[in-house]
Amino acid sequence: MSDRWTSPGSSDPGDDPHGRGSDGGPNLHKNPAPPPGGQAPPPTGWSAGAPAGQPGAGGWGAGPGAPGGSGWGGPRWAPKPGVIPLRPLGVGEILDGAVSTARAHWRTVLGISLGVAVFIQLISLFALRFWFGDGSALTALEENPNPTEEEVLDAVADLFALGSVTGLATLVGSVIATAMLTVVVARAVLGREISIAEAWAESRGRLLRLLGLILLTGLIVGAAMLVPLLIGGLTQFVPLVILGAIAGVILAVWLWVRFCLAAPALMLERQGVFTSLGRSWKLVGGSWWRVFGIQLLILILVLVVSGIIEFPLTFLAEFVSNGGTNMFVGSEMTWTYLLITGAGAVISSTITLPISAGVTALLYMDQRMRREALDLELTRAAGFDTPNDPGAAGPGHPGY
Known about the structure:
Layout: H1 91-104, H2 106-131, H3 137-143, H4 149-189, H5 196-203, H6 207-234, H7 238-259, H8 262-269, H9 273-284, H10 288-320, H11 335-372, H12 374-381
Helix pairs in contact: 1-2, 1-4, 1-11, 2-4, 2-11, 3-4, 4-5, 4-6, 4-8, 4-11, 6-7, 6-8, 6-9, 8-9, 10-11
C-alpha cells in the first residue's frame, strides 16, 4: 500500500535514502522539506502519531483509556473526509462506518464479498453432492441397518474429508475477503476510491502471512480451550471436568479478544505474524471489555441477519425437495436443495462479510486513535489542519 500505518517506533524496511518506499512510490514516512518561508505542508503519511501515554499534537489524540470527548460536553468536532470522523469513535459510529463503507464503495465491496461467497459455496456444494450422493459411504451407511465396522469407518472418513474440503474453502475465502476488505476500509476512511483490482494488488502480498496468522491464532485459542479440559478429564472427577471445560472456554475467549486486531495490524502496518499478534495484544490491553462487547454485538448481528436470510430459504428447499434432509441424507440431498440453500448462504455472506471485516478494521483504527493519536496522522493525510498547524481551529470548532 502507498499509505502505511506504521506503529510507533517502527521503521519501514522498504525505505531508501532517496525517500522512496519499498513499492517504488513516494515514502510517506518522511516529511518533505519545508518550502521557502518556513511553513511546512501537511504530511501525507499514515504512520502512527504520538506513542502511548503521550498526548498528540495540540492535545487532539486521546491517551490510553481516555474518552473521545474534548471536555466541551460532547465529542469534539473532527474532520470527516470519509466514512468516519477522524477522532476516537463510539460503538454506533464504528457500526455506521462499516455500513457506510459498503454503501459508498458498493461496487468494490459487493464484488469482493459476492465473489468470495460464491467461491466458498460452489466448493461446498460440489463437496456435499459428492460425499452425500448416491454410492457414497454415507449413503451406504444410511441404507444399512447393521453396518460393519469398515462401513462405519468409511463413513467417518467421508465426513472428515467433507469437513476438510469445506473448511479449507472457507478459510481461503475468509483470508481473501479479510485482506481486501481491510484495504477498502482503510481507503474509505480518507474518502478515497479503490477498485477491486487495486484492493487485490495491495493485499495479495500479505495473503500468506494473513493465512499463517489466522492458523496460529486458531491453534493458540484451540490449545487454550483444550488444555484445561484435558487436565480436568485426567482426574476422572466430573465436577473438575466441568470446571476445566468452563475455564477453557473463558481462556479461549479472552485470548481471542486479545488477538482479534492482529489481522488489520498485519495488513495495514505490514508487520509480521508475531509482531501483529503483539500489536493486537497491546492495543486491546486495558480495553478488553469494550472490544469484547463490540465483537460480541457484531457476532450476534451477523447471526441474526444470517438466520433471517437463510432460514426461509432452507425451509423452501426442504419443501421443494419433498421432505428435505437430515444428517445422513444420501440421495435425498438433491441439486435443488443444494442450490436453494447455497443461494441463501451466498446472500447472507455477501451482506455480513463486509460488516464483520469493516467493524474489526475500524475497531483497530479506533484503538490506535485512542492510544497513539492516529487521528492526527489521518487528519493530515486527508489534507486538514491539526491544532498545531498555522490557522487551525481549536477543538470543538468546525474550522470553516
